Amino acid sequence: MDGERGEERRPMDLRNWHHERRWRPYRADLHREVARLRAPGFARYRVEVRKDELDDPNWEAEADEEESTRPFSAAMATIKKRVESRKSNPAGDVLGWTPSSRQRLRRAPPLLHLCLMSLVKHGEEIESLEGIPDDLKHKIVSLLCSNRKMNSRILRTYLNGSTTEIHLTDCSWASEDVIQDAFTSCNINHLRLVQLDLSGRCMPDYVLQTVLDKSQYSFPSLVTLSLKGAYRLTDNVLSVLASSAPSLKSINLGKCSLITSCGIISLAEKLNLAELYIDNCQKIDVMQILPALETMEHLEVLSVAGASTVCDTFISRLMHACGYNMRELIVADCHDEAIAAFLEASGGSLIELSLNSIAKVEHQTAIAVAYACHSNLQNLDLSFCRQLTDEALGFIVDNCSRLSILKLFGCSQVTEQFLEGHSNSQVRVIGLTGSILDEMEMSKGEETDKGDEM
């Protein structure tokens, strides 16, 4: 049946079939021509200049004209025009957002969250996790870690039996022997996700090396690995890790202070990564690893928060190479105009965006987020962005209809005008009221639930 008209489709007779075959080559030529005409708007160019062209006074003007046709350059030009307009006419700098007069009801914490927190409060009484569904088991263990109630006895019962995921959000309580025993007691061949965050105390090179030495492909099924805060790991073990986990798509090395640019380049050469988190790795120069990032055709998520070498050139080149695949970008200490231009050029595909602690985020970024990210953005972190006004936040929230989580930790400038005045009923604002730890735990739970739904 035809999905729109409800009419029964008739089979093509032989004459129509021959007619279709006759015209098919011409249609192919037509599609190729359309693609050729549209390609300049999306292509990434590499300009090669001959020596004789350098002496031509018209060459630079022609190069500038070609540059202006690229998506990022066009967006950058738009942003600069807005900045100049704002400087020349400060009085006209109005977003046009007005608070709603509708009263808003505050939501109570989910019942499941209250039950889990009660269980965690008495975590020392937990004797076994047997029979509990895996998703709830992972949530319980994550909450125990976050509330410093985790211990080796609970870890043993957590890993008892066949498991495909390990969620340890805080391993600061564990010793090197505990981690080694944990991997000995479980079948690592079936592991698809391993999270060992804040594992600096228990994860030097030799511990991970011992696990990897079990076989040539120690983690054949591993897709996601998080070693955030493993400050004793070095580049030496990354090359072995890449060879032992050939299916790895996502790796988090945030705050691994001994990892250098060479280690990241080695990973990029051996793995087809879709997600890379290297925030606050002070020995990594993002400009040095940029050529390697540009070869990562399937890169969707990148975190370089806290990297002092992030600059306009880095954002521009990264966008040209990977921009149309990116769905999450976490940056810090970057020029605000470059961020706004990136969002305007390719922010439509972003589901999550973190601009945490970027002091320059203000008016232009608010416009870019509201206009470019309105269709897909679900999670936005603007914590410690203290130049954003109530009007700018309201403009973002009311335009981004799918936004469900907005983090505003440290934004003391936000008032009730925004909190009670925005019209997005599904967004949850986190970080302004109540206990910070409780707010963070609830946000983690909601993000996990959102991920499960997707």
Distance between the termini: 30 Å
Report the major sheet.
11 strands, parallel
- Please give the radius of gyration in angstroms: 26 Å
Shape: globular
Number of helices: 18
Q: How are the strands of the largest sheet arranged?
A: 1-2-3-4-5-6-7-8-9-10-11
What's the helix-strand series? Answer: HHHHHHHEHEHEHEHEHEHEHEHEHEHEH
Helix content: 40-55%
| DSSP summary, beta strand count | 11
Low-confidence stretches: 1-24, 40-55, 59-63
Query: In what range is the share of β-strand residues?
Result: 5-15%
Mean pLDDT: 79
Structural class: alpha/beta
How is this structure best described in words?
The structure is a single chain. The protein is α/β, with parallel strands linked by helices and 454 residues long. The protein is 44% helix and 8% strand. The chain has 18 helices and eleven strands. The protein has helices at 14-38, 51-54, 59-67, 71-88, 111-121, 134-146, 152-159, 176-185, 205-212, 235-244, 261-270, 286-294, 312-322, 336-346, 363-372, 390-399, 416-419, 436-453, and strands spanning 165-168, 193-196, 224-226, 250-252, 275-277, 301-303, 328-330, 352-354, 379-381, 405-407, 428-430. Helix 5 crosses helix 6, helix 10 packs parallel to helix 11 and helix 15 (363-372) runs parallel beside helix 16. It is globular, with a radius of gyration of 26 Å.
Give a short overview.
With 454 residues, this protein is of the alpha/beta class. Helices cover 44% and strands 8% of the residues. Strands 1-2-3-4-5-6-7-8-9-10-11 form an 11-stranded parallel beta sheet.
